[in-house]
Amino acid sequence: MNATQFRSTLAELRLTQVEAATLLGVDGRTVRRWIEANEVSGPADRALRAWVTLNRIGLAWRPDGRAIAENSENQLAKYRQHAIDLVTVVEKVKNRGGPRLPWTVDLDRCLAKAGEMEVYFYKLANGSFSPQSYSRPGHPDPIRDQPLLEDAYACIAERLAQTSDGKLEFMVLPGISGSAVRLMAYTSDPQIVAIVSCDAIRSVTKAAKDLTDEDCRTLLVCSELNRGLVSGLALNEYTRGKFAVGNAGMPVVQIGRKELLPIAKELDPTVVDRPGARWGTAW
Known about the structure:
Elements: H1 3-13, H2 17-24, H3 28-36, H4 42-57, H5 65-70, H6 73-95, E1 104-106, E2 111-114, E3 117-123, E4 129-135, H7 142-163, E5 170-176, E6 180-185, E7 192-197, H8 198-204, H9 213-221, H10 224-239, E8 244-245, E9 251-255, H11 257-260
Parallel strand pairs: 7-9
Antiparallel strand pairs: 1-2, 2-3, 3-4, 5-6, 6-7, 8-9
């Protein structure tokens, strides 16, 4: 990637020089050299090209807010590699003419199905996804089944891209902080953080008194319905000025029992008991 292409890429991705340096794991001087004359190569070039591809198909590529705020090179590197791996799979499936089987993707259940084969995935905080586990009749063989798994991943990516309509939505951040689930609206300006009390979720959700903190997070990660309801609450509180100002000037909305009560009957607690909800794996 030459300097002209690099400048064009930054413009397309709406990245400032400072943001590009952070996300690519380089210093500002390196970015300035790339802008002026030097060729971008290696991991940075591959990451930029992957981000552009994901951006054009409407799939999330930007790392989650926590990794950016903490400038965690380890986490940012994982996001870069994830983008490269996902684009590799999507393009491989496209080049061989598309999926061999018709796949259906259930975003609420985090499940893709083709016949009796099932592939579970995990929704990432930035709006993308990561594979979890799969099952099929007979003995699963990841090497033999790799083409089918790639087809599933490509279909999941396409389904997520179809649902990305630019609507403001809060995505769940990794980890639990102070027995609370944290969400962030990435597409807002400024970005908005919502903090949902796990105790509040347990107190208003029917038959969910035994939910762990991580179960409360799963409740919002693997259900578009639940996350949408809470997102609506957070946005409403923000527009009413019911927020505090946190680090870096970000508005922080606190959601407790009082805020959750109006949607309590609509929340679905069964998602935490669905197969794959607590499992994890890599590509």
